[in-house]
Amino acid sequence: MSDWPQVVAVGHNCMDHLCTVEAYPPEDGSTHITDMVSAGGGAAATAAVAAARLGASAAVVGMLGGDALGSTIRALLAQEGVDTRFLRTVAGGRSSDSYIMVDPRHGTRTKFPYPDDLPPIPWDEAQTAAVEHARVLHLDGTRYDNALAAASIAQSAGVPISLDGCHMQPDNAKNRALASMCSILIMNYRYPVEVTGIDDYEKALLEMASWGPKVVVGTQGERGCLAVLDGTVRRFPAYPVKVTDSTGAGDVFHGAFLAAWLRGMDTERCIRFASAAAALKCEKMGGRAGIPTFEAALALMERYS
Fold first, then answer.
1. Are the beta carbons of 13 and 45 closer than 8 angstroms?
2. Residues 36-57: pLDDT tens digits?
3. What span, in angstroms and rounded, lies between the C-alpha atoms of 152 and 166?
4. DSSP state of 190
5. How many CB atoms lie within 10 A of CB 26?
6. pLDDT at res. 247
7. Per residue in 195-224, pLDDT tens?
8. Which pLDDT belongs to residue 104?
């Protein structure tokens, strides 16, 4: 097959229902919903959408329920140009969706995921081949069995592995094992400290860099991100935008980083490009509506370079 996707994503793939609220209420309180939007979501799936919109070919490998929700999730990926050939449908299975309350004062959100009831990926011949022929495998670790199996296939085939460090296993040895298999390790603000057990954030990043990843980045929302470059931790500030909703910003960062990396940008430039794409996403509701074009993200990055 000559049209193997460059980016193969394995991980969370769901539907998001985003509700803008007047203010997030205290326990046993109430508030009004002022707006509601439903859109495709999931960390790995949205990273694949971002990579595709920014010029890379991308696919999602995984399972969907044989319900209307699963059909919608698949259709939304296909509309974005994401290859869905490697998604398998489970008759009678329930797909995943998530309810997200967005506080417009800060663009922050509170998530209420409703997980699926699907079996592990069977890793049939086509799914295995998709990983083996990828330029990069992207994981979010939400199903450790799926993530570890995919990483093992990629490692055996010499395919670089990218990990969204967001979902942690209770057994920290599993987190370290998966992180150590990666070439690109980009994490949220909690992951480095909790996985290493080192309270100092910069020292935690340096420790993880010693495990083998060539790229180590910790994202910190409006504070930008920290990255290990040439053995030194450097800060990259966030780009100034008017934030409407931060849902999916980290997922877009991952997809944008990979799209830039596949174009041959160096690590520093990949980080700046990913930061610009993630910032522009925050101007619109939902994890995908605000994903910019390659040209728009590049223009924002160069405006502040």
1. yes
2. 989 999 999 999 999 999 999 9
3. 20
4. S
5. 8
6. 87
7. 999 999 999 999 999 999 999 999 998 899
8. 78
Strand ranges of the sheet holding 108-114, from the earlier edge strand across to the other edge:
33-41, 14-21, 96-103, 108-114
Given the DSSP bridges, would you call strands 232-236 and 225-229 parallel, antiparallel or unpaired? antiparallel
The closest of 32, 115, 38, 117 to 76, measured between CA atoms, is 38
- pLDDT, tens digit, 9 for 90 and up, residues 239-265: 999 988 888 999 999 999 999 999 999
Domains of the chain: 7-12+43-62+124-303 (3.40.1190.20)
Which residue has 């069977």 as its token pair? 122
Q: What's the pLDDT band for 135 if we cut at 50, 70, 90?
A: very high
- What does the alpha-carbon distance between residue 38 and residue 99 come to, in Å, rounded to a whole number? 9
**pLDDT on residue 1:** 55
Cα angle vertex 148, ends 181, 7, to 5°? 75
DSSP state for residue 272 in the 8-state scheme: H
Tokens of 257: 């980083």
- Please check whether residue 99 is in contact with residue 14, taking contact to mean a CB–CB distance below 8 angstroms: no
Please tell me the distance from the alpha carbon of residue 195 to that of residue 179, in angstroms, as a whole number.
Answer: 9
